[in-house]
């Protein structure tokens, strides 16, 4: 029952909250749909932290999509051997993971140590920072340390199979039984931030200003007294 709760009920509950929460907030609270930038308070740490975080997180997300969403047999069929995949996932993935971690450390330290930034931060802002920092850290730990100490573990035969089962509404909690603890924590906290997403500043991710490219210039005229 515990496995069913953790690996079936909990993920689906987080996904449901994610979807319903976004719909509700977009319909009733669009005014707060913003990143609430604090750039005017402090720029240097924000710039470096943001650059490193985004530079690292995009490849990390792409790696998760490939590792979790594409079966190993499909990759082998197009010429990507297990050894080649392992090099990309562990070594290249570790590099981008560490870059993301450094970025999150800078952003979190800025939010806590800078008094003006801290005053502008809500409880959800601080929670998101620390939760993202922990998720990235435990992800790096799993990739670097756990893979080195438990070399026989292959998440593509366990976590990936379980995750794809969730997507097609045929979840099998048994796939997660032999998964190392660090990977389990990484997965559970990942779903936790998925559930919190609609209620935090993370919603700004979906507000890509694509209309800026073709938008007409804004004209400013000096007001004469």
UniProtKB/TrEMBL annotation:
Entry-linked SUPFAM superfamilies: Respiratory nitrate reductase 1 gamma chain
The keyword Manganese is annotated on this UniProt entry: no
Location, primary (coarse class): membrane
Tagged with keyword Repeat: no
Stretches assigned to the NarG-like domain: 3-222
Protein EC: 1.7.99.4
Superkingdom assignment: Bacteria
Membrane topology of the entry: Multi-pass membrane protein
Enzyme class: oxidoreductase
Keywords (A to Z) from UniProt: Cell membrane, Electron transport, Heme, Iron, Membrane, Metal-binding, Nitrate assimilation, Oxidoreductase, Transmembrane, Transmembrane helix, Transport
Membrane spanning stretches: 6-24, 45-72, 84-107, 127-150, 181-199
Places the protein is found: Cell membrane
NCBIfam families noted in UniProt: narI
Protein name: Respiratory nitrate reductase subunit gamma
